[in-house]
């Protein structure tokens, strides 16, 4: 998978998440202090990846770039445990930089997943 497509996925998903943050912030501004919103938004970032990838193998960014998460061992499907470990692995601070040295990020290697072009 080309690094450029992965970068586009990240960029598009970041834009979708930013829009979500703005909308949720506007909805909750009367009920939650601004400083407390981060305790809601940070987990929401990981929930976004987990829910989208576990349901369809794709986030919004992957839908636009026509890529999908698949299992290395079973390419026809990806298991919930693969998606769980993929999502948890995103918590590793250097995960985003792992693409500088490899075509597969840390979250791909640890979860035994990869991206497939549709």
From TrEMBL:
Membrane topology label: Multi-pass membrane protein
Transmembrane segments: 7-28, 40-60
Compartments it resides in: Cell membrane
Keyword Cell membrane: yes
GO cellular component: plasma membrane
Principal subcellular localisation of the protein: membrane
UniProt keywords, alphabetically: Cell membrane, Membrane, Transmembrane, Transmembrane helix
Pfam families: RDD
Domain of life the protein comes from: Bacteria
Domain RDD: 6-102
Protein name according to UniProt: RDD domain-containing protein
Organism of provenance: Flagellimonas chongwuensis
